[in-house]
Amino acid sequence: MKIGVTGATGMLGRIVIEKLKERIPQEEIIALVRSPQKASDLQVEVRRFDYNQPESQTASLLSIDRLLLISGNEIGQRAQQHANVINAAKQAGVKWIVYTSLLHADSSTLSLAEEHRKTEAFLKASGIQYTLLRNGWYTENYTGSIKGAIASGAFLGSAGNGKIASASRADFAEAAAIVLANEKHQGNTYELAGDQAYTLTELAAEISHQTGRPIPYKDLPEEEYANILKSIGLPEGLASAIAGWDVSASKGDLFDNRGQLSKLIGRPTTSLAQSVANTIAEE
Question: Are 103 and 200 contained in the same domain?
């Protein structure tokens, strides 16, 4: 049996590879990456694989039985990229695709959701066995702003009082490895989210508690928040998208309380306090 992981040098993919090595022989793991020179430390077989080069994908997928398709990072291009990978997987004889989708992809108002819905439809039409890992928000999406919040004296956003049931990348990576290692998960759709839901006000309070400094949450209108993000150097499109995602969070799109992620990994998901502590320790 061979398991392939796309995007294996990305922030999620690297952890998936390590979690897989804890469960199956490393010679059964194949890292599919755009730049093989960046994957030498993974200590598994490496094959060149580019989402934007469908003409070479089939050859790279030969002999792979199970494929983890980690969604690409080129927003607006991903639906076609994923369709190309699914078509290549079918031609190469891949038997099962596990796809990292989005929490509540079928109903989410997040701007990211449509590409995930299209990819899920491609999978269902492909005839290949599939599993959908509908990943919620990575806690790192918000803890990555801690340094700036400490420097400015406030945590900014547009999420209102929306509850965010996030989990760490390591939690989601472990779930992916567990699913890939056991075919009993074929055909399932998992809505994956953290055990602990919080508002950005509560996140700011946790940062304040751990730093001993008052860091309030300042809720801003979507356009004002986007303009601030642009002023600190983010591209206009990304700044607008981030502000929009916060608005979706205010509508409950990042909340789920079914506990499917902790059930899959057999332990509680990483707490908000631990994620904040980890980030502060890195500063």
Answer: no
